[in-house]
Amino acid sequence: MTSPRKLVMILCITLSVANTCAAPDVGEVSHTCGEQVDPLSDYQGLVEKVSRDLIDRTPTRAFNYYNEENNGEVTSYGHAICRNGISGDQCTSCLHALNVFRIKYCGFVFASQVTLKDCHMRIDEVDFKWGTAEPII
Questions:
Q1: Which of 67, 34, 55 is nearest to 120 (CA)?
Q2: pLDDT 10s per residue in the chain (137 long)?
Q3: Which terminus of the chain is more exposed, N or C, with fewer CB under 10 A?
Q4: Are the beta carbons of 79 and 121 closer than 8 angstroms?
């Protein structure tokens, strides 16, 4: 016969693993796309570098990460957050799904903002980190 304490421990471990392995909620909440588009622009390369960096680093930076990339002429700014209570792997998965969504619906725009239920990403030409600039989207 299994003791109640052992059953509680088994239940806690099972629930803990289930939460870690569960997929993030990638249901769309909102998206906004800027109007400026140039798929051949050097700026588009910066946008892609910013998005990759946000996906890679947000899960290890307390689920709230700002970055910027500069090519000597222009700068692209980014910010990503994941909902507290999800795992780092879930955050990464959510941001990957978000980035696919961003590319599908916004294409090669210079500014975009996408919010899914478990994560959010914004990329812009305007430095919005300190709240001093109005977004262009």
A1: 55
A2: 554 333 333 333 333 444 445 888 887 789 999 987 776 677 888 889 999 999 999 999 999 999 999 988 888 999 999 999 999 999 999 999 999 999 999 987 889 999 999 999 999 988 877 554 444 33
A3: N
A4: yes
